[in-house]
Each structure stands twice: as C-alpha cells, then as structure tokens.
Amino acid sequence: MPDVSALSWFLAAFTDPRLLALTALGTFAGIYVGAIPGLSVTMASSILISFTFAWDVETALALIAGVFMGGVYGGSRTAILLNIPGAPSAIATAFDGYPLARRGEAGLAIGITTVASFVGGLVGIAALAVAAPVIGEFALMVAPRDYFLLALMGIVMVAALAGRSLAKGIVAGALGVAFGLVGLDPMTAEPRLTFGSMQLLGGISFIAAMIGLFGLSEVLVQLHDIHRPFVRQQVGRIVPGLREVARHLPLTLRCALLGVGIGALPGTGGDVAALFAYQHARRSVKKPSRPFGEGAIEGLVAPEAANNAAVGGAYIPMLTLGIPGDAVTAVILGALFIHGLRPGPNLMIDSPHIFWLTVGNLTVASVFMLLFGLTGVRVFTRIVECPKSVLLPVIAVLCGVGTYAIQNSLTDVWWMVSFGVLGYVLRAYGFQVGPVVLGIILAPLMDANFRRALISVRGDPLALLADFVSHPITVVLLLVLIATLAGRAAPVRRLAGRIGARVARGGAP
Asked: Which residues cross the membrane (predicted)?
C-alpha cells in the first residue's frame, strides 16, 4: 500500500465533515457518559452498535472511537469531584484527585488530567500506527500464567498503595476476589459461593460494587460532617502552564508507554494500566508536589496518561490479531464482523484503509477530548460547592439510578446498598475500598488464566511451578510482584530508611 494512500485515509478523519462531526459527537457523549457511575463506556458502545448496523463502516467506527476515547477520560471527573470513579480506569485517579478537590483545587486537577490524558492518548495512537505488528506479536507470547500474574499484581499493587497497612490492603483485595468468584464456574458451570441462591448464579456486578463502595459509602462517611461548610473551588486557572506540563512530561511519557504495553495485552485494559502507572509514579518520583494520597499532581498524571494510552494499545491486538484488548474493543470487533470485515493479520492487506482511518479517528477524538475537557469545568465544579444537605441525597439517588440502569435489576440496587454499608464499615476500621473493587474486577481473569495454565501442564502442580520459574516474561513478573511486596514490608522499609539516613549524612551504606 503506498504511503500516500495511507496518509489520505488518515487525513480523511480530519477533512470529511461527516466523520469529523460524528467523532466530535461521540467524544462529547463519551466524556459525560463516562462521568456517570453505572453508565459505562462498554454500555454506550453496545447501544451505539445497534444504531449503526445500517451505516457504512467508516461512520460507525468514527462515532465509536469518539465514545471510547472520551469515556475513558470522562471517568476522572466524578473521581476527582466526588471520589466516585465513573469507570474502573479512574479508580487510581481518585487517590490524589479527590484530596485536591477537598483542598479547593478541582479546576487544577481537571486541567492536569485533561492534558495528561491528551498526551497519553497521542502516545497510544502513535504506538498503534508505528508498532502495531511488533506489539501484537509480543501479546501472542504472553501465556495464561502471565495473565494470572498480571491480574494478581494489579490487586497487590493497589493493596500496597491503599493506606499505611499492607496487611489490610491484602485482606481487602482477597475479600474482593472472593466476591468476584461468586456465580457459575465458567468452565464447569457449577455454582460457586452461591449458597443455593438463584440470584447469585449470575455473579455480582462489579459496577454495582464500585458504585456502592465508592459512592454510597462516601455519602455515609460525609453524613458525619453534613453541616461543614463547602470548600470553594479555585477554577481561575484550569489550563496548566507550559512549565508545569514540561516538568511532568517525562513521567507522562513513561506512563503512557506503560499503558500502551498493558493495553495491548488481551483481557487487561485501562484499569490495570492506571494502577501499574500509579505504582511506577510512587516508586520513581522522589519529590512529588505533595505526598501521594494527599493531592500529588504526579498521582493524577500517571494513571490518566496510562489509561488513555491503553485505548490505542487495546486496538492493537484487535486489529492485528482479531483478539479484543478489552470489553469495548470486543464490541468494536463485533461491529467489524457485522460490516463484513475480518480483523486479524490480513486486515492490513485486505482493508488497510480501515486501519489508517481508525488511527485518524482516534487522533481527532483526542483533540476533541482536549477541547471538551477544558471547557465547562467551572459549571462542573459547582457540584462540590452545593450544600451537603442537598448534594448527598442527590448522589445517593444517582447511585441507585445508575445501578438500576445496568441490567434493570433491583437485585443490583440491593447489592449496591450492601456494598455501600460494607465500604462504610471498612473505611471506619482503616481499610481502603479500592482493593475490594479491583479484586472483584480481576478475579475472573485470575481464575480463568490460572486454570488454563494448570490445564496446559495436565494438572501437574510441580510442572506449573517449573513453568513459573523457567520463562523470561513470567520470571520478570514474579520479581516485580516480590519487589512490590518486599518494598512495603515493615522490616525492609525500616532498613531502607536507615540506609537513606546514613547516605544523607555522608556515611557508607
């Protein structure tokens, strides 16, 4: 395919008024759908697919690309303002975004996340355009045991970051895994942890759990201070200065590349990428603007750059291998099949225009995300300036409506309420709710891939153990997992503190 043809299809996303308008509409809708807990990007994409059956494939993919890019970013809005992530990929953003909002700096927080998301999105798109075949081949090298370790690492990392106690973080993560395993066994169809209840056969909706643990539990916690006056938000400066953007650019690029790599692994996605990036920021940034967890700008830059870069990464296995990188690309994969295309190694040969048009659509969506993300912030931040006696009931009602909208099920609403009470109790005793949500989300990925790994060695535990220590990718993941646990262990931290103090005094380590 000549380069001029590839360039013309890429530029068509910018020059065709119809594609431009649909991408802008999708991005705008995605931002505000992503900001509403319970209304996921996957749900929005699924609904859109039903409306685009009669469209040509170019216009359908333009609209969906906008929704995907905007929705991943949109989840950060409510994570910052209300400590309620609009999407799982925004869980890590709440760690430092909400403390910033409580300081009255919501405008700055939203501006920083918007720019980081924009840069991360462009890095992901560049990786899709340049390195799609290479990263696609690497994704094929990752075995089920590696996916198991990736899921386990995601839970352990957020457990290590959750509060001061590693033990409490691990207990919360394990509790989430137990909830995530409820329902029918995906391989044998046997009920697990259902206690004979028909309502539990379908499992527990992680969105209901997320809304309850983050949303309703926050309402219950805030009831203790319902008469405290609101914090007026400083929204005079929304767009961060060039010096501030340049200062965080190395971290933004590192986390974006990390997001591309994780996003290209089928079955992972922006939530795992954001957690890995947040952990990387905590380890690599020696002098953050504030302590992590108390409003560090670096704690916003890292996850937002990673989760938007993971969008481009998720397209890589979908287009080059025919394997969806996450739930949204699974929907897009279905749309391609409906329109008579066959994603996979031959797509670049049979329909190269689809690839380059997709790259163009995602680039346009990133630009619109930047424009829409930096506008309307003053109106949006007024949410947290409402009196709590008005705001908290509204949030509680929205939690119920958003949960019911998932499957039109009152059972999900009751689960949301139960998880809200559980989250309130956990937070009262010093536990963080982030590991619980991640445990529920990643438990099926851990379970399925561990069993696939065991099946691959015919059920021999010793052979599986040998596999874990004899393959380079697996060994690297194991070492990272061990280092994460060891780095948070009290004896190791005390030893590191003594060594650091001695080095600072000029003595030998």
From this structure: 31-54, 106-135, 147-163, 169-188, 200-221, 321-341, 353-377, 389-407, 413-443, 464-486
